[in-house]
Amino acid sequence: MQSILERITSGKFWSFHGGIHPPEQKALTATKAIRTLPLPKQLIVPLQQHIGGEGDLLVNVGDKVLKGQPLTLASNPMALPIHAPTSGIITAIKKSVIAHPSGLSELCLFIDVDGKDTWIKRNKNQDYQQLSSSEIIKKIADAGISGMGGAGFPTHIKTNSAANIDFLIINGAECEPYITADDLLMTEQSQAIVDGINILKQVIAPKNILIAIEDNKPNAIKAMEIATKGLAHIHVCVVPTKYPTGGEKQLIKVLTGKEVPSGSLPINCGIIMQNVATCFAISQAVINDTPLIERVVTVTGQALDTPQNAWVLLGTTIDFLLSQFSAQPLESGKQPVIMGGPMMGFGVLSEQVPIIKTSNCILIPSKQEMPSAFDRQSKEVECIRCGECAVVCPSQLLPQELQWSAKAKDYPQLEKLNLRDCIDCGACAYVCPSQIPLVQYYRIAKAEIRQQQILDIKAEKAKVRFEARKLRLEKEKIAREEKQKKAAAARKAAMNKATPEAANAKSAVAAALARVKAKKAGTTTAAAPESNKSENNVEDNTQKSQVAAAIARAKAKREQKNQTNDRGNNANTTEDKPPQDSAIESTADNTKSVASKPDDKKAKIAAAIAKAKAKKEAKSAPSITQSTDEASTEAPIPATQSDNSQADDKKAKIAAAIAKAKAKKLAKSTQANQSTDLEVTSGNADVDANNTTLTKSEKKAAIKPSHEPNISDNIGSSNTDPSNTDSSNKTQNQADDKKAKIAAAIAKAKAKKLAKSANENTSNNANNNTQKELT
């Protein structure tokens, strides 16, 4: 360190790589005192004017504010408050274009100035040495001070993190052409700047303090030497003029010979750097309780009538500044306006852009002075690989490769090439013979990389939140399972106790299990009435019984047809089919038609009742059967006829026995109600099978009305006169058929009427009686 101080004292400094010597053009404003401007009619104050986030709003539209009043509140360490530059009324809070190369818009406060310039109450403190470090840092933060050399880093963060600092460097180099704001500030406010340096010394406690000023600022050098006379810990260092000596890492190299590693900060090397304008703002905040509401701005360029430095309120628009320094209004849209110097500045798209904390220059060049600013068409041509950009780069980068990667949006390669070490000095673009705007490519690439980094941080935070949520849900699931297990164990223990509550719990569990089983089986409830179950079973079994009945009917018809054919083929048989058979068939057909109706169940019950009544009437008419038997004995039938009748009876009995056996088999597989349905639906089969077991006289007695002529008369007459027998039989058969149909219709009507009043038990009893009579 001693060697460093010795070199500085002897005026020997180190040199950094590269650098250029552009025309200075400082004479336009360097010899003129700083001017105080009148109050503008309106101020546009952006909420964010530094590196970091914006504060929380403290005012609303329509509020009246005083000069120095806080407008926002810092909500995090990287946020800084802003203050009202003068008194007035908040007329709007909306987005407006700000000082940015892209011309983007941010939230701004619009203040209509009342012209009174009324201050808020301030607490001045001339004896700042009595303040503690924490109190000083708080005053710096509350004043909203950020680095005023161009970066805009919050000053209280840099000051509060200091530890084991070897050098506190005050940057007064101001190396960029045209700009003389720091030069004039040091010339006119040297004592205030020294007060600020002493305040920083009290907080940081550096071993040495170096004030760096380029040798092209004689007035500033003289003023600072006078102000620091007698202060052994402060050294005024006059460094050679070279662009960009004012760069942080470049000035550290010039003064100390140290190189800050890539990706590292000067504080890691025991060095802190502050701008002279920042030191002045610190003294104003700590001693005079004045927040950062104005700064010195160089308004220069040959297109202006009176270029000069001026104290400008933050939020003052560019068009107001131009109106103060030019007699004639500039031609809008054609005159280029540059915020900053010619090397590191950028063109603004609107004259409504306001001055912010980092604005130090407004350049309005003439066409002869800077023709490239008026030619909006790019003259960029292909790189000729001359290598001049790499020669002059003060950060020892490879600008040519950086430009290729930036155009290709190869961000990983840009990281490898250390794009973040680029200070946007513009030296590479200044010497490029192909007129490639290299700095513009780098700025765009940096912005895109920052945006991608923000997205990556958000994605990482979202991932952390997702993992935390997943873990929380897993814990909740385990807790629920444990709770359910404990509840189940408690219920089981309670059910095992011999108490009424345990019995009720068991019955409740059994009922719940029954409901679950019922749902699985497709039933609606677990405790449905038994009648509903039987109805469901009957409906299921009815379909099966109907199929079986249809098969039985088909077999009975086939056998009946065979018997009829056998009787017709017998030459000695003169007896036609009895009218009772036709009546039975018609009754069976009627029964089938009833069964085929939609109200199938009622029709079946009605048919069963009609069948029972017919059998009951047949049982109550024995005289008819006896007269038939007597007639058969008095008038014996010929042998041939009796033989045929016996053969027919035998076949009929066999068929009846088969049908009866099938009916019994079906009856066993169904319940009592199903057997009733089976007998009804199998109409022809049951009628034929039951009737075949009866004699002919019993069939006639069961079907024919009591007032009909006895069959024995017909038989007797047939023995005496065969010719008359044929004609009388035809007539009698027609009459019997007609009567049988009438009787069947009446029986059907009665059956329907009775079916409405008959219940299920009556039908079952009738079917049981019928089966007993048949057996």
From TrEMBL:
<feature type="compositionally biased region" description="Polar residues">
    <location>
        <begin position="669"/>
        <end position="695"/>
    </location>
</feature>
<feature type="coiled-coil region">
    <location>
        <begin position="471"/>
        <end position="498"/>
    </location>
</feature>
<feature type="binding site">
    <location>
        <position position="389"/>
    </location>
    <ligand>
        <name>[4Fe-4S] cluster 1</name>
    </ligand>
</feature>
<keyword id="KW-0997">Cell inner membrane</keyword>
<dbReference type="Pfam" id="PF01512">
    <property type="entry name" value="Complex1_51K"/>
</dbReference>
<protein>
    <recommendedName>
        <fullName>Ion-translocating oxidoreductase complex subunit C</fullName>
        <ecNumber>7.-.-.-</ecNumber>
    </recommendedName>
</protein>
<dbReference type="InterPro" id="IPR017896">
    <property type="entry name" value="4Fe4S_Fe-S-bd"/>
</dbReference>
<feature type="binding site">
    <location>
        <position position="432"/>
    </location>
    <ligand>
        <name>[4Fe-4S] cluster 1</name>
    </ligand>
</feature>
<keyword id="KW-0408">Iron</keyword>
<feature type="binding site">
    <location>
        <position position="386"/>
    </location>
    <ligand>
        <name>[4Fe-4S] cluster 1</name>
    </ligand>
</feature>
<keyword id="KW-0249">Electron transport</keyword>
<comment type="subunit">
    <text>The complex is composed of six subunits: RnfA, RnfB, RnfC, RnfD, RnfE and RnfG.</text>
</comment>
<dbReference type="InterPro" id="IPR010208">
    <property type="entry name" value="Ion_transpt_RnfC/RsxC"/>
</dbReference>
<keyword id="KW-0813">Transport</keyword>
<dbReference type="InterPro" id="IPR017900">
    <property type="entry name" value="4Fe4S_Fe_S_CS"/>
</dbReference>
<keyword id="KW-1278">Translocase</keyword>
<keyword id="KW-0479">Metal-binding</keyword>
<feature type="binding site">
    <location>
        <position position="422"/>
    </location>
    <ligand>
        <name>[4Fe-4S] cluster 2</name>
    </ligand>
</feature>
<feature type="binding site">
    <location>
        <position position="425"/>
    </location>
    <ligand>
        <name>[4Fe-4S] cluster 2</name>
    </ligand>
</feature>
<dbReference type="InterPro" id="IPR026902">
    <property type="entry name" value="RnfC_N"/>
</dbReference>
<feature type="binding site">
    <location>
        <position position="393"/>
    </location>
    <ligand>
        <name>[4Fe-4S] cluster 2</name>
    </ligand>
</feature>
<feature type="compositionally biased region" description="Low complexity">
    <location>
        <begin position="756"/>
        <end position="775"/>
    </location>
</feature>
<feature type="compositionally biased region" description="Low complexity">
    <location>
        <begin position="717"/>
        <end position="729"/>
    </location>
</feature>
<feature type="binding site">
    <location>
        <position position="383"/>
    </location>
    <ligand>
        <name>[4Fe-4S] cluster 1</name>
    </ligand>
</feature>
<feature type="compositionally biased region" description="Basic and acidic residues">
    <location>
        <begin position="696"/>
        <end position="707"/>
    </location>
</feature>
<dbReference type="Pfam" id="PF12838">
    <property type="entry name" value="Fer4_7"/>
</dbReference>
<dbReference type="Pfam" id="PF13375">
    <property type="entry name" value="RnfC_N"/>
</dbReference>
<feature type="domain" description="4Fe-4S ferredoxin-type">
    <location>
        <begin position="412"/>
        <end position="442"/>
    </location>
</feature>
<feature type="compositionally biased region" description="Polar residues">
    <location>
        <begin position="583"/>
        <end position="594"/>
    </location>
</feature>
<feature type="binding site">
    <location>
        <position position="428"/>
    </location>
    <ligand>
        <name>[4Fe-4S] cluster 2</name>
    </ligand>
</feature>
<keyword id="KW-0411">Iron-sulfur</keyword>
<feature type="compositionally biased region" description="Polar residues">
    <location>
        <begin position="562"/>
        <end position="573"/>
    </location>
</feature>
<dbReference type="InterPro" id="IPR011053">
    <property type="entry name" value="Single_hybrid_motif"/>
</dbReference>
<keyword id="KW-0175">Coiled coil</keyword>
<comment type="similarity">
    <text>Belongs to the 4Fe4S bacterial-type ferredoxin family. RnfC subfamily.</text>
</comment>
<dbReference type="InterPro" id="IPR037225">
    <property type="entry name" value="Nuo51_FMN-bd_sf"/>
</dbReference>
<keyword id="KW-0472">Membrane</keyword>
<keyword id="KW-0004">4Fe-4S</keyword>
<feature type="region of interest" description="Disordered">
    <location>
        <begin position="521"/>
        <end position="775"/>
    </location>
</feature>
<keyword id="KW-1003">Cell membrane</keyword>
<dbReference type="InterPro" id="IPR011538">
    <property type="entry name" value="Nuo51_FMN-bd"/>
</dbReference>
<feature type="domain" description="4Fe-4S ferredoxin-type">
    <location>
        <begin position="370"/>
        <end position="403"/>
    </location>
</feature>
